[in-house]
Amino acid sequence: MVKPQIVDASEVKQRPRKAPATRMIEALPDGYLTTRQVAEKFDVNIETIRRLARAKDSDGKDRFTAPSKAAKSGELIIWVYTPADVDELAEYFGQKISKRKGKQE
């Protein structure tokens, strides 16, 4: 049986807890973006990016390869976009993305 130690509440430092998805997103390698980050990059609604990810052409094949990667931890899956995926969507939106981080032409 565990016997807890009782202390004054003022002695306890509270640490903010983060959701597992938040911790996973924060641990993504540089260059990978979440669906929300891609939506913000192109100034569109997140549902627009989700619809494009599911879009099919007239032959029933995927219209885009994006997202081409996923971050997985147990049952938790977060779809992530590579720089090539972002370039593919930039072409769709008629934008050129410069090679420098965060710059759009």
Question: What do you see in this structure?
Answer:
By secondary structure, this protein is of the alpha+beta class. The protein has a domain at 26-93. Helix content is 33%, strand content 12%. It has helices at residues 20-26, 35-42, 46-54, 83-93; strands at residues 33-34, 69-73, 76-81. Strands 1-3-2 form a 3-stranded antiparallel sheet. Strand 2 (69-73) and strand 3 form a beta hairpin. Helix 2 (35-42) packs across helix 3 (46-54). The radius of gyration is 20 Å and the shape is elongated. Residues 99-105 have low confidence and may be disordered.
Provide a concise account of the structure shown.
The chain has 105 residues and is α+β, with helices and mostly antiparallel strands. It is 33% helix and 12% strand.
- Taking pLDDT < 50 over at least 5 consecutive residues as the criterion, the unreliable ranges are 99-105
Query: What is the tally of helical segments?
Result: 4
Class from secondary-structure proportions = alpha+beta
> What is the succession of H and E elements?
HEHHEEH
- List how many beta strands DSSP finds: 3
Q: Using only CA atoms, what is the Rg?
A: 20 Å
Oligomer state of the chains in this structure: single chain
Strand order of the largest sheet: 1-3-2
Largest sheet: 3 strands, antiparallel
SS strand fraction: 5-15%
Determine the fraction of residues in helical runs and give it as a percent range.
Answer: 25-40%
Give the overall silhouette.
elongated
The average pLDDT is 88
N-C termini distance:
64 Å
